[in-house]
Amino acid sequence: MPDFAALQQELRRLAAERDVVILAHNYQRPEVQDAADHTGDSLELSRIAQKDPHQVILFCGVHFMAETAYILSPQKTVLMPDKHAGCPMADMATVAGLRKLKAEHPDAVVVAYVNTSADIKAETDVCCTSANAVQVVDRFPKDQKIIFVPDRNLGDYVARQTGREETMILWQGWCHVHDDFRAAEIGEIRAANPGSVLMAHPEIRREVLEIADVVASTSGMLRYPETSDARTFVVATETGLLHKLGALYPDRKFIPASTKAICPNMKRNTLEKAVATLGEEWDDVLEHEVVVPERTRLKALQAVERMLA
Ligand code: 13P
Ligand code: SF4
């Protein structure tokens, strides 16, 4: 077992020496979250990446998140401990497929979940995250046709929340971590824990969202227990979220809705790799650097800025 305390100390020392801010998504390994300057959901981390004054960002998350940080702040150096940490759902959306869909529905606008590549964002009118998808879609008139890409589950949830089941065209992508939850299995966990509250991420199938007490982004789930008298919560999302839930609410009980809900890509960023990245000779750090070609960035920026506005 690596000495996490020593690695965290070394990471903090390197970050201070090299003017680096460390951002970690809520699904990161506990020891990585604990060493970060900021943890958060996709929306919060985008906002922090934009406003933070450090010149270098070490982004412990998946590739589209680091890309989004670069799209917003191209003057900064954006690094990842492991650049191969991708998002299989983001990869399910292709530019050729999206262009075809746009040609078939020329009167539609494109709303893209932030879990997409910069190339897809460049083909998009406005981005959203799980925290603001309903609000972003609701800004359009009710009869506006909307192509929603890439998550069919989030798209279905938003369509139902906004009364747009007839006007939203859903790309058929999914997150393999969230799509695997089943209502029957979760029902058994709840039956064994009477009075428990079910919190679920909107990337999950409708059958689970229909029985959930709360549907929220990862940070929404981190805030919810504060407003609830419940003592026990069943948490339907990637298990990385339980680390912070436990730290924030030590007197409550949090049960994973499935112990198999682990995103292998999120977990690629280890503390050792984070230390190695900041310990590199600065010329060699390029293999950890995330950049987006300027033409693509400028087009994608419009969609990301509309989301943040
Ligand atoms: P949040 O935006 O809710 O943090 O989750 C996004 C996600 O699934 C990242 O992979
Ligand atoms: Fe992608 Fe799902 Fe992993 Fe998030 S949890 S990075 S959506 S595969």
Order of helices and strands: HEHEHEHEHHEHEHEHEHEHEHEHEHH
**Tally of helical segments:** 15
Overall 3D form: globular
CATH architecture of the largest domain: 3-Layer(aba) Sandwich
**Strand proportion:** 15-25%
Percent range of helical residues: 40-55%
Distance between the termini: 44 Å
The total strand number stands at 12
CATH topology (level 3) name of the largest domain: Rossmann fold
What is the count of structural domains? 3
CATH C-level name of the largest domain: Alpha Beta
Report the C-alpha radius of gyration, rounded. Answer: 19 Å
The fourth-level CATH homologous superfamily of the largest domain is NadA-like
